[in-house]
Design goal:
binds iron/sulfur cluster, two-stranded antiparallel sheet, globular, alpha+beta, single chain
Length: about 60
Amino acid sequence: VKVTIDRPKCLRSGQCTYLHPKLFKEGEGGIPVVLVDEVPPELQAEAEDAAEICPSGAIVIEE
Ligand code: SF4
């Protein structure tokens, strides 16, 4: 499972980096950077939660 950020959609609201610092950190211009290449099983629920809470649907989970 991979997580990507749809950068043009991101509102830079910061929820993902604040709530899920193991997966995201703030990057250039406030757009988050994904910290893992593959989401490890123990972070899968966090990744799904991040995608749900993102106000703009910019967090994409790919199987
Ligand atoms: S929660 Fe969504 S809109 Fe907010 S910074 Fe993260 S990716 Fe961007």
